[in-house]
Structure formats: structure tokens, C-alpha cells
Amino acid sequence: MAEAIEKFSKAMDRIPEYVTTFIVQSRKAEGRSVLLDALVGLAVRTAWEPIKSMIHTIGIEELQRTCRILAILICPAPEDHKAVQDGALLPLAKEGMLETSRERLEQVFPAGWVHRLREGLGGA
Fold it and tell me: Domain coordinates of the chain in residue numbers?
């Protein structure tokens, strides 16, 4: 058990590095402007510390769901960003979004976008 906890702790410490690499590669793949790796790394590390402490408070699954929702809300064009679609929209849809959540999305996003999203998710 102690060895598993040590491995888990080391993996947690590598999350900012993984996220930084993913963001930089994703931006390049989508043809978006490249940000300095150091700047992305600083932003990720700054965001990671409070997120890491939240794991103990609300649990990993709830924290993951919260991060997915935040990704959708802060992305200026989720319909144009594959990483947001694959990492946030689709997992939330597969999880089974409640009708209340659908109605809230329709209040926040343009109706046409929500309609296209629901069609793309097979009516989810």
C-alpha cells in the first residue's frame, strides 16, 4: 500500500508537466498561435495547486466533472476545439447529462450551437 501511494504521489506531481505538454501540442495541432512553454507551464502549475487540494475535499470524480464543465464554460468556442469536445463535452454527454443541464446549456450558448452539439452527440 505504501509503495502504491508513493507511485500515486509521484504521478500527481507529474500532472502539470503532462497538462502543459498536452496544451502546447493541442494548440500546434489545431493551427492556433503557439504560447511559450514556460508561460503555459506557469499557468498550469498555478492552477494545479488549488485543484490538487480539492481532491481531498470533493473526490477525483467530482473534481474531474467540475473541470470538464469549466473547460466548456471558459472556452471561447468549444465547438471549434477538438480537445474540449473530446475531453469535456463527450464525456459529460456519455455520463448522461440531465435535462436541467441541457436547458442551462441552451441558456448560456447559442441555440443553434446546442442543437448541433446534441445532434453530434447522437441526441445526448
Answer: 2-97
The per-residue pLDDT for range 68-112, each reduced to its tens digit, is: 988 989 888 888 888 888 889 888 887 766 566 667 777 777 777
* pTM of the predicted protein model: 0.60
Position 25, amino acid: Q
Choose among 27, 102, 31: nearest CA to 72.
Answer: 102
Cβ burial, residue 89 (10 Å; 0-12/13-18/19+):
buried
Q: How many residues does the chain have?
A: 124
Q: What are the backbone angles phi and psi of residue 122, rounded to the nearest 5°?
A: 70, 30
* Assigned C-alpha cell, 112: 443553434
Q: What is the rounded distance in angstroms from the CA atom of residue 68 to the CA atom of residue 47?
A: 14
Cβ proximity of 68 and 92 under 8 Å:
yes
The x, y and z cell numbers of residue 70, run together, are 469549466
